[in-house]
Specification:
The complex is a heterodimer of chains A (746) and B (153).
Chain A lengths: L1 H5 L3 E2 L6 H5 L4 H5 L15 E4 L2 E3 L4 E4 L9 H13 L6 E4 L13 H4 L9 H17 L9 H28 L7 E3 L2 E3 L5 E3 H9 L27 H6 L14 E7 L7 E5 L1 H4 L4 E7 L2 E6 L2 H9 L2 E4 L8 H9 L7 E8 L2 H6 L4 E7 L11 E6 L4 E5 L4 H12 L6 E5 L13 H11 L6 E4 L2 H7 L6 E10 L2 E12 L1 H8 L2 E2 L20 E9 L13 H19 L3 H8 L3 H13 L10 E10 L2 E12 L2 E12 L6 H21 L4 E2 L2 E2 L17 E7 L16 H13 L16
Parallel strand pairs in A: 1-22, 4-5, 9-19, 17-18, 21-23, 26-29
Antiparallel strand pairs in A: 2-3, 3-4, 6-7, 7-8, 9-12, 10-13, 11-12, 14-23, 15-20, 16-17, 16-19, 20-21, 24-25, 25-26, 27-28
Helix pairs in contact in A: 4-7, 7-8, 14-15, 18-22
Chain B lengths: L1 E4 L2 E4 L8 H8 L18 E4 L2 E4 L12 E3 L1 H4 L7 H8 L9 H14 L5 H8 L9 H15 L3
Parallel strand pairs in B: 1-5
Antiparallel strand pairs in B: 1-2, 3-4, 3-5
Classes of the chains: A alpha+beta (746), B alpha+beta (153).
Bound molecules: FE2/S2 (inorganic) cluster (2 copies).
Pfam families (chain A): MoCoBD_1, MoCoBD_2
Organism (chain A): Sinisalibacter aestuarii
InterPro entries (chain A): Ald_Oxase/Xan_DH_a/b, AldOxase/xan_DH_MoCoBD1, AldOxase/xan_DH_MoCoBD2, AldOxase/xan_DH_Mopterin-bd_sf, N-heterocyclic_Hydroxylase, OxRdtase_Mopterin-bd_su_IorB
């Protein structure tokens, strides 16, 4: 649509070998920091030391620029700053801040380089460094890919340390006591006589001092907050209904809008008839858009009612209308000309297969919807002088430009105010709903417009997880797995998603192989080939992205081969694991679950291991085959993130990730009929309900050398661990998700 | 028509068939009660009428009559938490938190009816409340803690 034409296409340097070949950038540009946005209009007597800390005579404000969609990073970012700043929870406020280049995500580079996360060779680290420099020039402020902790861990502690040392210098100036005799604690500088000067009382003096830089970070043994159980800053508000999500925004004179667009996504609107809607109670305006119609009313329900009364004649989608044709297109893509990349080729897999009688199997992963519980919404006020946007969003640095392209303002006149988000799983990365709200608000200048998707519209317009098919061939010998040849075909999620942002990604798509090629097993022969299926229905990153399907493919096939070999599923994985940090994860989960002990009749256990986003995760699932169907009794999880920042939140996120992985593997798919998704509300695709939820025991390991995020990595092993457990209990192999097509769940 | 919410009587001028959910959110500005599905599939909109949990998206405002509506804002406040809210905070239940108003209202209603529910009874009472983030294990534990604290244990 319009924006793709108005924003120049750029080449975005992730997921790509072009990273090495095509980039030239000056050392100067890479070393020069971006300006501190807090200095814009800084009030007299206020001090800012860097883009994350702002102090005035009243309060300390910490900027937590990563989007928080439930993963707790607002709190965690603040904790990293507070660790070095010596300030306690309750003594400061937090703000998401305004979009700025200074907040670019340094953590996006690792996922895009063609090295296994377990590869810490000089070559791999050098390329990661180059990729990091390129990321700085792109200056993308974006939350996703479990990157908040890798991006923030050093940067925000440094921000806190610089602020602390500068405040001490200010205190020295104010008190005449040498800096070396000053200490800090609880938001104050402490003088040798025990008296305290609050940071707020030092703001005016500190404002006149150049920030003290080159401060050494504290040794982990001195940490007060990191690694200790925390009380998240958003928890009281979220338990009392007082947290303001985007959907809760209210402004004087605000009107409420909703939208209907072609459910055959990307198809045209041929005609519509809104005659019945126009006269309905509370309806203020019907706003035709390029591929749909918005209704503006005086409350959300009246807007929903009126939208239901509009009739449409829709044009067809650019993809096949029926689901079967999608599967056919994927199945037809295992060809030489569709080969995106051979990601791994250890040993001589071809020769090993030719020398024996290969065992083979085929697996499928369907389209799956995101459906966080907060429906898409955005509130926008357009006036001739400025534009304000209130909503949650992850693609922070692109919103103001996208809206400016619609309203005709200069980007500097457009102001995005980020909000806590009611879940995402990748859903709140897309710009479309904000652009639609901007189109409506631009036609009603001076009136704040809140656009809310109905749940049905949210299902209809979602860009689900990409579907895929995997074909495995393998050889077992002398009780062990000898060769694995895995081929995966799926549409490119990066191509689809980044294409909508006007960004083209050269080279292979790492998400067709993520979770399958990178598991650090030392198989004698292992080949993994990725095939790019021509674009089908539009797709988008879904919590853990490629690994959500590929982890299921790889680990399920490995499990089948281990059974063919007659080996123990746990012992054989541990034997094959060459990467020590990953092996310890497997050993931990074996110990936690007392793997190998006798089980009651009808019970079965499965183990799975998948590395994603640099985090090795192993899960053991125990099920019972009951009269009502399969019941998941218990899950044990071990994951290594290098450093566990908050063990309480870590446990919550791991449990949630396991539930997400299990629930969708059991119960969910999106299928197309007549070009539209057949699933229309939660009763068609709800993930896991309360009664299906097992007990989940979690252990965080800290043997890894880098700090990693935990939002996504617990998801990929859940599906194969469950499938492997069901096989152990019943002898039935499940090679296609969702499993409820083949077995009942209690 | 008149509507009593959290002890305050309001005059609202809306169609009788408008769901209570939207009257609370858009007409009265009580946004703690959430819209998730509109079709009785998620429980995010759960409130109490005369102490009993109901889905406000399925309750026509004209049917509330003299019933006393309690929303999450009326259950307790950050300064005066209800025992269920205190347990939710102690167990650090929320992730995105969007479902939690409904979860808490459902749990409070359960405990008013059944002061010491078993795990199976908790599962059954809470089954209509979807949590897309997967906080169920913590909800289970928090309901047990709230039950104990309400019984003065
Ligand atoms: S909004 Fe009422 S049950 Fe979902
Ligand atoms: S905490 Fe996010 S839906 Fe429950």
């Amino acid at each position: 649509m319009g924006r793709a034409r108005t924003i120049a296409r750029r080449t975005f340097l992730i997921g790509s070998a072009a990273l090495l070949g095509g980039v030239a950038f000056g050392v100067y540009k890479v070393k020069t920091p971006y300006p501190n946005p807090l200095e814009d209009g800084l009030a007299d007597g206020s001090a800012t030391f860097n883009p994350w800390v702002l102090i005035d005579s009243e309060k300390v404000t910490l900027i937590t620029p990563h989007a928080d969609k439930g993963q707790g990073v607002a709190s965690a970012q603040a904790a990293l700053i507070a660790e070095e700043l010596d300030i306690e929870f309750g003594q400061f406020e937090i703000s998401f801040g305004a979009p700025a280049k200074a907040y670019y995500n340094t953590g996006m580079a690792d996922e895009g380089v063609p090295f296994m996360a377990s590869d810490e060779s000089r070559m791999a680290e050098t390329v990661r460094g180059l990729a990091g420099s390129a990321m700085k020039l792109v200056a993308m402020q974006m939350t996703g890919g479990s990157t908040t902790m890798p991006d923030s861990f050093d940067k925000l502690r440094e921000a806190g340390a610089v602020a602390r040392e500068t405040l001490k210098a200010a205190a020295a100036q104010q008190s005449g006591v040498p800096v070396g005799q000053l200490k800090t604690a609880r938001g104050a500088v402490i003088l040798p006589d025990g008296s305290e000067i609050a940071y707020t009382a030092l703001a005016a003096t500190a404002a006149g001092i150049a920030p003290v830089t080159g401060v050494a970070l504290r040794d982990p043994s001195a940490w007060r907050l990191i690694g200790k159980p925390m009380q998240r800053l958003d928890m009281v508000a979220k338990s009392t209904g007082t947290l303001g999500y985007g959907l809760d925004i209210r402004h004087e004179g605000m009107l409420f809008a909703t939208i209907r667009r072609n459910p055959q996504k990307g198809g045209a609107m041929l005609s519509y008839n809104a005659a019945a809607a126009e006269g309905m109670a509370g309806v203020k305006k019907i706003v035709p858009l390029a591929d749909g119609v918005a209704v503006v009313a005086d409350n959300t329900w009246r807007a929903f009612q009126a939208a239901d009364a509009i009739t449409f004649d829709w044009g067809p989608a650019p993809y096949p209308p029926e689901q079967a044709a999608h599967w056919e297109a994927i199945a037809a893509s295992f060809t030489e000309d569709r080969l995106d990349k051979t990601w791994r080729d250890d040993g001589d897999t071809g020769a090993a297969l030719a020398a024996g009688t290969p065992f083979s199997a085929e697996y499928r992963a369907p389209y799956v919807a995101h459906q966080p519980l907060e429906p898409l919404n955005a509130t926008i006020l357009v006036t001739d002088e400025r534009v304000d946007i209130w909503c949650g969003h992850q693609t922070i640095s692109m919103i103001e430009g996208a809206v400016a392209a619609i309203t005709g303002h200069d980007t500097s006149q457009v102001h995005f105010h980020n909000h806590f988000i009611g879940g995402s799983f990748g859903h709140w990365l897309e710009l479309g709903f904000v652009e639609q709200a901007a189109e409506v608000a631009n036609q009603m200048r001076g009136v704040p417009i809140k656009l809310t998707y109905s749940r049905e519209e949210d299902f209809a317009q979602d860009f689900p997880r990409q579907p895929g098919i995997a074909r495995g061939q393998g050889i077992v010998k002398d009780g062990h797995v000898e060769a694995v040849d895995l081929q995966i075909a799926m549409p490119s999620v990066l191509g689809s998603q980044m294409g909508r942002l006007g960004i083209s990604i050269p080279g292979p798509d790492s998400q067709i192989s993520a979770g399958a090629w990178n598991n650090p097993y030392a198989l004698p022969n292992y080949r993994m080939r990725a095939y790019r299926v021509p674009e089908l229905a539009p797709v988008s990153s879904w919590r853990s992205v490629g690994a959500s399907a590929n982890g299921f493919f790889f680990d399920s096939f490995l499990d089948e081969l281990i059974h063919e070999a007659g080996a123990d599923p746990m012992a054989e994985r541990i034997r094959l694991m060459q990467h020590e940090v990953s092996r310890k994860v497997l050993e931990a989960v074996a110990e936690m679950s007392s793997w190998g002990g006798a089980l009651a009749p009808g019970k079965g256990r499965g183990v799975a291991f998948v590395e994603s986003f640099g985090v090795p995760v192993a899960e053991v699932v125990e099920v019972t085959d009951t009269e009502e169907g399969i019941r998941i009794d218990k899950v044990w999880v071990a994951a290594d993130v290098g450093t566990v920042v908050d063990p309480v939140n870590f446990e919550n996120l791991v449990q949630g990730g396991v539930i997400f992985g299990l629930g969708h593997a059991m119960n969910c798919e999106i299928t197309y009929a007549g070009g539209a998704a057949e699933q229309v509300n939660f009763y068609d695709a709800e993930g896991m309900r309360f009664h299906q939820c097992p007990e989940i025991v979690v252990r965080g390991l800290e043997n890894g050398h880098k700090v990693r995020g935990i939002g996504e990595p617990p998801v990929p092993p859940a599906a194969p661990a469950l499938a492997n457990a069901i096989f152990a209990a019943t002898g039935q192999r499940l090679r296609e998700m969702p499993f409820n097509k083949f077995v009942d769940f209690a | 028509m008149r509507l009593t919410v959290n002890g305050t009587s309001h005059e609202v001028d809306v169609e009788a068939d408008m769901p209570l959910l939207w009257v609370l959110r858009d007409e009265l500005g009580l946004t703690g009660t959430k819209y998730g599905c509109g079709v009785a599939s998620c429980g995010a909109c759960t409130v109490h009428i005369d102490g009993v949990a109901v889905l406000s998206c399925q309750t026509a405002v004209g049917d509330v009559g003299a019933g006393a509506v309690t929303t999450i804002e009326g259950l307790g406040t950050p300064d005066a938490l209800h025992a269920v809210q205190a347990a939710w905070i102690a167990h650090q239940v929320a992730q995105c938190g969007y479902c939690q108003s409904g979860q808490i209202m459902q749990a409070a209603s359960l405990l008013a009816e059944n002061p010491s529910p078993s795990d199976a009874e908790i599962d059954e009472a809470m089954d209509g409340n979807l949590c897309r983030c997967g906080t169920y294990p913590r909800i289970r534990a928090a309901v047990q803690t709230a039950a104990r604290s309400l019984q003065g244990a």
